[in-house]
Amino acid sequence: MALLTMAAAAWLKRWGVPVLWILWGLGGIILAKVYGLPQVLDTVQVFGERMGSALLPLRDRSDVLSTLTQPRPDLSALPALLGQDALQRLQELASGWAAVAVLLSALGFALLVWRRRRG
User: Fold this and answer.
1) pLDDT tens digits for range 67-100
2) Separation CA 29–CA 87 (nearest Å)
3) What are the angstrom distances between the C-alpha of 82 and each of 48, 55, 59?
4) Helices 16-33 and 2-12 meet at what angle, rounded to 10?
5) What's the pLDDT tens digit per position in 21-32?
6) CB of 32 within 8 A of CB of 40?
7) CA nearest 43: which of 22, 24, 17, 18?
8) In the chain, fewer beta carbons within 10 Å around the N or the C end?
9) Average pLDDT of the chain to the nearest whole number
């Protein structure tokens, strides 16, 4: 998604990012409502959830977060929790979503290279 966003910004300048997100949103809504194909919206939702989980690994663990906000937090369980989270992220690489992410990244990279060659 990041490379597609960069490619959209390279091609359309400051309008690239809003146009890309509007196309994803409107295209997904039209495909879901009119044609009964919710895959685009599902893909955006799954990528958003996975990105949030990767960037904020403990966001769903309110019990751990509540202990970290105490004046003297107990950090002894934190390495094990982060290790479990890292293992889950590695397991997700075996899913089909990883292949979709790689294909979208390759498309974004190709568009960036093409734009660079054109000047």
Assistant:
1) 667 777 777 777 887 788 788 878 877 878 788 8
2) 34
3) 20, 12, 12
4) 120
5) 888 888 889 988
6) yes
7) 24
8) C
9) 82
Looking at residue 15, the DSSP 8-state letter turns out to be: G
Cα dihedral value 53, 54, 57, 61, nearest 10: 10
- Positive/negative CA dihedral, 75, 79, 80, 85: positive
The Cα–Cα gap between 28 and 45 comes to: 11
Total residue length of the chain: 119
Q: What is the pLDDT of residue 106?
A: 94
CB 7 within 8 A of CB 108: yes
Query: Contact at 8 Å (CB) between 98 and 92?
Result: yes
> Which residue do the tokens 């949103």 mark?
25
Q: What angle do CA 22, 93, 108 make, to 5 degrees?
A: 35
User: How far is CA 72 from its chain centroid?
Assistant: 34
